[in-house]
Specification:
It contains 12 helices and 2 strands; from the N terminus they run αααααβαααααααβ. With 285 residues, it is mostly helical.
């Protein structure tokens, strides 16, 4: 290959690489916007939830997405799940118009006499500092509780629920192993561990993170119904879906009763779709 052809090949490779990188950078924004639209309109298998839609549009708009900014303006303009506020609508229409959204430009022209407001409900959040969790090989209950108090809020889950599950699953024994190969504090079977990104189920902090991630998924899947969530954690979500509630298995029924004797709330707030990802694991030497 001569030098001219090499230069052309290099230029083409650079262009393609930049294009792929741009596509990859846009993918999370697209996912946020699509999830927001699903909640706004109650489609794609999602229940209509304007607050969830607003939160996800907000995240995407703060990342520079013009369509999400326009949709926020439209929610304020129409009072969709929010108090109608033209000044805040103009604020988001302006952001969208500034990056070339034509519809937003038309709305700005229509309301050119209205000053843009300051949307206190959608502002960039300060960067969360990573939590340093040292995985003690033989933690006592106090250490486990400290970990849970740091991990559970990042998934939008009441730490008391996680603690109740750990008590029922392993009685706080890090080395607990069931006949079905469920491992550790939250008794993760290998399939569940892999599903939620746990590389070492015997690492107690990773185990708590994996079990809490599963509870996060179940709480969203079953609309915060604690008894259904607990039954699914014990017997699997497919069984709960099939019976539309707690299945007629004595083990599962006793499991749910045992935990609800400690954690008495029948409903848990449905956690956000995207949990905070700010927990850093440090292995104790």
């Amino acid at each position: 290959m001569n030098k001219k052809m090499q230069l052309i090949f290099c230029l083409l490779s650079c262009v393609l690489t930049k294009s792929v990188m741009a596509d990859q950078a846009m993918q999370p924004i697209d996912e946020l916007r699509q999830a927001a639209a699903g909640y706004e309109h109650g489609r794609n298998g999602l229940k209509q939830d304007y607050q969830q839609a607003f939160s996800l549009y907000c995240q995407a708009a703060l990342l520079g997405d013009a369509e999400s900014a326009y949709n926020l303006g439209f929610m304020y303009f129409n009072g969709r799940g929010l108090a109608r506020d033209l000044s805040l609508a103009v604020r988001w229409f302006k952001q969208a118009a500034d990056v070339g959204d034509k519809q937003a430009g038309q709305m700005l022209a229509r309301f050119r006499d209205i000053a843009a407001g300051d949307d206190a409900a959608c502002k960039p959040q300060p960067q969360a500092q990573p939590l340093k969790l040292v995985a003690d090989a033989n933690p006592d209950r106090k250490i486990v509780q400290d970990w849970v108090n740091q991990i559970a809020p990042g998934y939008g889950i009441d730490p008391l629920l996680v603690m109740a599950v750990i008590q029922a699953e392993s009685a706080f024994k890090v080395s607990a192993l069931s006949g079905k190969n469920a491992q550790g504090l939250m008794q993760l079977i290998p399939e569940t561990a892999e599903r939620f990104g746990v590389k070492d189920s015997w690492n107690p902090v990773q185990n708590i993170k994996g079990g809490t991630a599963y509870l996060h998924w179940l709480l969203r899947h079953f609309d915060g119904k604690v008894d259904w969530v607990l039954a699914a954690y014990n017997a699997g979500e497919g069984v709960v879906e099939r019976y539309q509630g707690i299945p007629p298995y004595p083990e599962t029924q006793n499991y749910v009763k045992q935990i609800q004797a400690v954690y008495k709330k029948p409903l848990h707030p449905v956690p956000p779709e995207f949990p905070a990802k700010f927990i850093v694991l440090e292995q104790k030497s």
